[in-house]
Amino acid sequence: MKIKYLAACCAIALFGVMVLSGCREGTMSTAGADCTTPGVTRNQVNVGLIYPDSGVTSNIFTAFRSGIDARFGAANAAGGINGRHLIYTLRSDEARASVNLSVSRELVEQAKVFGILEGSIVASGGADYLAKAEIPVVGLASEKVWAKYRNMFTFAYNFPDGAVDTFGKFVKERGGTRALIFYNGLDATLSTPLANQFNISLSALGIPAAMVAGDNDPSATQVEEAIRLIRTNGIDTIIGSLDVKGLAKIVSAVRQRGLNIKVIVSSSEAPSQDLLAQYGSQLAGMTTVTNYLPLEVESPANTAYRKAMSAYAPESRDSGQTLALLGYLIGDIFVRGLQEAGACPTRQGFIDGLRAVKDYDAGGLLNKIDFEADFGKAEECYSFIQVNSTGTGMEVVNTNFCGSRLN
Fold it and tell me: For the CA atoms of 155, 156, 159, 161, what is the dihedral angle to 10 degrees?
């Protein structure tokens, strides 16, 4: 990814890697106080960024990095945090746990970073080391380890402690009585745990569900099996924790057979305009559930996000990419932690200060989080948007639909 900012303001060379801050000409602010914490100088806070910057996932996570550039860039343009600009040192863990550990050590012991941002799916590799070293970590919680260590912060857990009745409550309120949960059986990181969460939630409301493993792009045989189950079991609800294109394929085939489906819920991103053009009204009522404010919702928070992406991550031409928004949210949590840590931040001050925050909402992009009470637990509130009746666009159902934790 090429970012054309002024070198004096926005980048330094460290161990042969370019460190980017997302700042722009004319944004330098009054320097902060002298501090002894590693990674903290009078002018800067240096953070480590780890994600798979090579291999088949590298292009996907480029958007994540752009989101961080946008949030750090906005913070720097506003004068930084207590007069210090945010920069980061990038390392790739190649999506391997052993490499995640080695680059975590390198960033802490050699690059002397203050904390770590993780866009990795194998953060467990370095998690124990970073916890023992009391290093603040903020990232995407795609593994169980995120619910174990209190130095690790996120806004949603793929493997939470317990479940909620929110999804079952939503389905029941919309008339659903029996469900089919279609998921990607090869995705043990996201799709499978989400399917299990849906199943528990539905069961809590007395809604039986059949769970069917398939592919993100279901084969004709898998689609026919879904149709058979719907017809023979009187199923009126379809839930998909797989790619939106795959779910759209199933929903379209079901409706072409004339089967009556009352509720359709997708945990993937909202259907694109191309997908809506392909299927049209066959997708009407297809509902997307997210643990962040959907980008399709017009709001001051989403406007601020888009402006930051345009100004400080101009290489990212599509601010609508989910991973870009997730990167922005991770960057925002780190900014909040530094704010809570005070004028001369320490790592422990960051951890303790952020854990004490009870009403974090990322400027309106999230429903409120209590970093202490919600640690490791499933979120109770979600946003729901759906395809309109003509299949031409999305409409808001509820941006703060809440249930209760089950245990």
Answer: 70
Please state, in angstroms and as integers, the Cα–Cα distance from residue 230 to each residue in 223, 224, 280, 284, 285, following that order: 11, 10, 22, 18, 18
The pairing of strands 179-184 and 137-139 is: unpaired
Instruction: Kindly indicate the confidence band of residue 56, based on its pLDDT and cuts at 50, 70 and 90.
Output: low
Summarize pLDDT for 346-390 with one digit per residue, the tens: 999 999 999 999 999 999 999 999 999 999 999 999 999 999 999
| Pair of tokens at residue 125 | 């590799």
pLDDT tens per residue, range 203-239: 999 999 999 998 889 999 999 999 999 999 999 999 9
Q: Which residues have CB under 8 Å from 368's CB, separation 6+?
A: 358, 359, 360, 361
Strand-pair category, 237-241 with 286-290: unpaired
* pTM recorded for the entire structure: 0.88
